[in-house]
Specification:
369 residues, two-stranded antiparallel ribbon, 11 strands, Rossmann fold, single chain, 28% helix, 9 helices
């Protein structure tokens, strides 16, 4: 696979983006990085190049590191089975990241802090805790931060815990947001994304325009947490819950979120690909059921609980104006599409490319609605 000349690529691949964004991206390719944006080098591997091609966003190398036609080159055997599957941050091809499309701000108000965050054995704490009593995010610079919700598990649910897919899913989705849009993303001193862990009682929750929960089917909300989550959502915040399978997990989640948003007041709705959320940048043709990488690698199937989880559910909770406040992807695992993108070439091709397209659409919707 080789990236051709820029104009040819734009003609071939621009149809993958919505018309209202097409001119924006062609402008990005012509003019490069906007003034004032940090263009630090980011490690880019063949998966990044394939992702850019499939989604219509060709990436280009800095001057002095280009082919004669100015393109970044890669061949199909770079991602063939048996090739070295590098971690996202291992250096392969250094390029200048065309950082980013919207200036995003969502400074809401504050609340109170509580329960102590604990990390299970074997889980690396790579993200700071957003527990500053002032409500400030650590090293806040106005850029996008992936905010992962810490939560406790209850006895009535079904889920492993808040830390599933952490931290690589948080980091990798943030990287793709930098690569495929011009959204400013906060980075640490090494040029890596800088997500945070936030409790529902942390004042810093209200500085996160987007928050995510993995395996919420096991969650338990106290009255204080539910009240704070309600305030956050009604003030303009956005919650995505993902990777929970089967009826027990769904019933428990429905019970927990109803503490914050009563169904009589804020009923759930089914979402389809026609919703504006899934047409923000990359038009989505089908909402996928994404399995964990092990299930796909060894069994080539997508339903983690067999017949019980055969049917994918994509649901939302809108506010009184129709804005989706809560996105719920049930019987699917977008987090693994981000976290485990490097584990298996067929998994990346089958699930990660579409998963990233949808993930970026969701982020853009959350930060503009």
């Amino acid at each position: 696979m080789t990236f051709g000349e820029k104009a040819q690529l734009n003609r071939q691949l621009a149809p993958r983006t919505t018309p209202q964004f097409r001119d924006v991206f062609q402008c990005v390719h012509r003019s490069g990085v906007p003034a004032g944006i940090d263009t630090g080098f980011l490690a880019v591997n063949p998966r990044t190049l394939l992702l850019g091609k499939e989604l219509g966003m060709p990436l280009r190398a800095p001057a002095g590191q280009r082919d004669p036609d100015g393109a970044v080159g890669s061949h199909s055997n770079d991602i063939a089975p048996g090739s070295r599957m590098a971690d996202e941050f291992h250096e392969t091809i250094p390029i200048v990241v065309r950082a980013t499309a919207l200036v995003l701000t969502a400074l809401l108000l504050a609340a109170d802090g509580a329960a102590q965050i604990q990390f299970p054995r074997g889980v690396s704490r790579r993200s700071p805790l957003a527990s500053d009593p002032s409500g400030a995010l650590p090293d806040y610079d106005g850029g996008f931060r992936f905010c992962r919700v810490w939560f406790r598990n209850g006895s009535a649910g079904d889920g492993d815990g808040w830390f599933v897919d952490y931290p690589r899913a948080d980091e990798n989705l943030s990287i793709r947001l930098m690569e495929l849009t011009r959204t400013p993303v906060t980075q640490n001193g090494e040029g890596q994304p800088y997500p945070v862990i936030v409790r529902l009682t942390d004042p810093a929750l209200f500085r996160c325009p987007f928050i995510m929960m993995s395996e919420p089917g096991g969650s338990y909300f106290s009255n204080e947490e539910a009240a704070n989550l309600r305030a956050y959502l009604l003030k303009g915040g956005f919650l995505w819950v993902d990777d929970f399978w089967g009826e027990v997990a769904w019933r428990n989640w429905a019970n927990q979120i109803s503490k914050a948003l009563a169904p009589s007041e804020y009923p759930m709705v089914d979402l389809t690909v026609d919703h504006v959320m899934f047409r923000m940048l990359f038009p989505v043709e089908k909402l996928p059921q994404i399995p964990n990488v092990g299930l796909w690698r060894f069994e080539r199937r997508t339903s983690e609980r067999g017949i019980e989880s055969d049917e994918l559910h994509v649901r939302g909770i809108p506010d009184r104006h129709g804005r989706i406040m809560v996105l719920m992807t049930h019987n699917t695992d977008f987090g693994d599409a981000y976290e485990r993108e490097s584990d298996d070439p067929s998994y990346f091709r089958t699930f990660s490319i579409t998963g990233y397209a949808i993930g970026i659409d969701v982020l853009l919707y959350a930060m503009t609605h």
